[in-house]
């Protein structure tokens, strides 16, 4: 399984932005992004915690240029793409 986990580096320590449970001796690959974190983190306060569950995704594609048309037509195009 591949899972993306957003984290920040503060004073050399990598801190996930949400709680994560790892198995003992689990292999990890860490990619360093060349952009600043999405949420500014001050060193004197803990990283922000985003709400858990599906509600954090509600409305996330609202301003997407890929979904500006008729929702039914978009669904049909996506479905027919695989035929």
Describe the protein in words.
The chain has a two-stranded antiparallel sheet with strand order 1-2. It is mostly loops and 83 residues long. It has one helix and two strands; from the N terminus they run ββα.
Describe the structure concisely:
The protein is largely without helices or strands.
**Quaternary organization:** single chain
Helix-strand sequence:
EEH
Q: Could you say which overall geometry the principal axes of the C-alpha atoms support?
A: elongated
Distance between the termini: 28 Å
In the sheet with the most strands, the strands line up as: 1-2
Percent of residues in helices: 10-25%
Number of helices: 1
Round the mean pLDDT to the nearest integer and report it: 79
Strand content: 5-15%
Number of strands: 2
Rounded to the nearest angstrom, the radius of gyration is: 18 Å
Tell me about the biggest sheet?
2 strands, antiparallel
Low-confidence stretches: none
Structural class estimated from helices and strands = little secondary structure
